Amino acid sequence: MQWTLVIPLKPLAQAKSRLAAAVPDGVRAGLVLAFAQDTVAAVLGCTGVTGVAVVTDDAVAGRALAALGARIVPDVPGGGLNAALAHGAAEVRALRPGAAVAALNADLPALRPAELSRVLDAAAAFPRAFLADAAGIGTTLLTATPGHPLEPGFGGASRDRHRASGAAELLLADVDSVRQDVDTGADLRAALALGVGPYTAASAALRPSAVPAPGQ
Predict the structure, then answer these.
(1) Terminus-to-terminus CA distance in the chain, angstroms?
(2) pLDDT on residue 14
(3) Where would you tag: which of 67, 104, 105, 129 has the fewest CB atoms within 10 A of its CB?
(4) Nearest 5 degrees, angle CA 4-CA 50-CA 93?
(5) What is 3-206's CATH superfamily?
(6) What is d(CA 65, CA 37) in angstroms, rounded to the nearest whole number?
């Protein structure tokens, strides 16, 4: 099955406020963009992915991610994360009505194409499916096969929300890079331990490593 992934991205200046304590002032926006670049690059290197639609109104991010091969979709609803995802999925299916679509977080800097391929292959067996995040509370990926609505319910305790909506939970081992999103300094340390992509590794925020250890 060929998938088109929809990736939402806030304006960089507004994104990842919880990282403010973990990275130097003035470089958080650049780090958020690096996360998104590594995410998009890994997705586009994934077997079974036919395209990426990034929903964003950030001009800088749009140019950088378009240069990688993503289609940029303006966030016309302006109604938050789930509205952006629903809009992106609708835009994809307006061009390809039979598309299999998946919503993916933009903050997966350690994402590995082979692991994402395994998750998408497993998801193809269900009308809708999701993968919980590393914390076991949220969601990093939600899929919908052709003919089924995406119905995103991201944010907060979205693992329970997606399960209650009828989506099948994908209980896969050894796909840590698809689960490890980054909201806090602890998350960033975990992603670095997995091995981040080149954009994040080269970010000014991490040269030299500026992520404080716990308790600092």
Answers:
(1) 47
(2) 84
(3) 67
(4) 40
(5) Spore Coat Polysaccharide Biosynthesis Protein SpsA; Chain A (3.90.550.10)
(6) 6
- pLDDT number for residue 210: 52
* Amino acid of residue 170: L
Mean pLDDT in the chain?
A: 93
What is the three-class DSSP state of 142?
A: strand
Order across the sheet with 71-73: list the strands. Answer: 71-73, 49-55, 3-8, 100-104, 139-144, 128-132, 168-169
- The residue type at 111: L
- Distance (Å) of CA 12 to CA 49, 75, 110: 26, 14, 19
Q: Are 61 and 15 in contact (CB under 8 A)?
A: no
Taking the C-alpha atoms of residue 90 and residue 23, their distance in angstroms, rounded to an integer, is 36
49 pLDDT exceeds 80? yes
Angle formed at CA 69 by CA 91 and CA 192, multiple of 5 degrees: 105
Q: Which residues lie closer than 8 Å to 37 by C-beta, 6 or more apart?
A: 64, 65, 68, 197, 199, 200
Query: Region 164-181: what's the mean pLDDT?
Result: 98
pTM: predicted TM-score of the whole model, two decimal places: 0.93
In 10 A of CB 50, how many CB atoms?
15
Helix (H, G, I), strand (E, B), or coil: what is residue 87?
helix
Task: Give the residue carrying structure tokens 């914390």.
Answer: 135
Distance between CA atoms of residues 53 and 76, nearest Å: 14
